[in-house]
């Protein structure tokens, strides 16, 4: 392992035959394991140490602006996987929490640890709320900019796109020949 690689808690560093445990590590089943998010540091010879690092991570709060990927749409709500909170990768998203150190797509945490949000039909726009058809507003895969209006329930934050600078920022298409064009909100 190179000296500059980012280590995560639980990640093996070396075998106990190759290195002794040092600061920021522990031993399990013959391996020296990292107990911190950080980088391997140079210590005594044949000693594995991890120097902790502070990653700029954010948690969604009421009033935060978030960017997320639409994962599911039904007539009452659109489910959003939150990727970015106020310009920072959010702490629950494994794909973005380590930023450039990950080769997985953002929001595709293998353990389902990413933050979830819900845009309800009444929170899509500020006028004519009764006539919103969610499947015409969002598609799975769309990238959406929204604001957190409530902490919601135990599983999801409640989000709103009812402002001029919020909504779909990157739309998916039905096929390779169709292109989306920007439109004014009354046309949508």
From TrEMBL:
PANTHER family in UniProt: 3'-5' EXORIBONUCLEASE CSL4-RELATED, EXOSOME COMPLEX COMPONENT CSL4
The keyword NADP belongs to this UniProt entry's keyword annotation: no
Residue span(s) of domain Exosome complex component N-terminal: 8-40
Annotated InterPro entries: Csl4, EXOSC1_C, Exosome_cplx_N_dom, NA-bd_OB-fold
Record keywords, A-Z: Cytoplasm, Exosome
Residues annotated as domain Exosome complex component CSL4 C-terminal: 59-151
Organism in which the protein naturally occurs: Malassezia restricta (strain ATCC 96810 / NBRC 103918 / CBS 7877)
Signal peptide range: none
The protein's name: Exosome complex component csl4
SUPFAM superfamilies the record matches: Nucleic acid-binding proteins, Ribosomal L27 protein-like
Any one Gene Ontology BP term: RNA processing
Compartments where located: Nucleus, Nucleolus
Molecular function per GO: RNA binding
GO cellular component: cytoplasm; nuclear exosome (RNase complex); nucleolus
């Amino acid at each position: 392992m190179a000296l500059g690689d980012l280590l995560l808690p639980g990640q093996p560093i070396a075998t106990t035959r190759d290195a002794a445990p040092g600061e920021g590590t522990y031993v399990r089943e013959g391996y020296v394991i990292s107990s911190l998010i950080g980088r391997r540091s140079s210590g005594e010879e044949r000693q594995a140490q991890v120097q902790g690092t502070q990653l700029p991570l954010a948690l969604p709060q009421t009033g935060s602006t978030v960017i997320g990927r639409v994962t599911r749409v039904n007539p009452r709500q659109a489910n959003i996987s939150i990727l970015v909170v106020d310009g920072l990768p959010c702490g629950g998203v494994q794909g973005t929490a380590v930023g450039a150190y990950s080769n997985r797509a953002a929001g595709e945490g293998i353990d389902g640890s990413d933050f979830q949000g819900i845009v309800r039909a009444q929170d899509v726009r500020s006028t004519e709320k009764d006539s919103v058809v969610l499947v015409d507003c969002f598609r799975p895969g769309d990238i959406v900019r929204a604001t957190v209006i409530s902490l919601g329930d135990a599983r999801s934050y409640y989000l709103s796109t009812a402002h001029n600078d919020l909504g779909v920022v990157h739309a998916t298409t039905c096929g390779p020949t169709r292109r989306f064009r920007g439109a004014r909100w009354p046309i949508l």
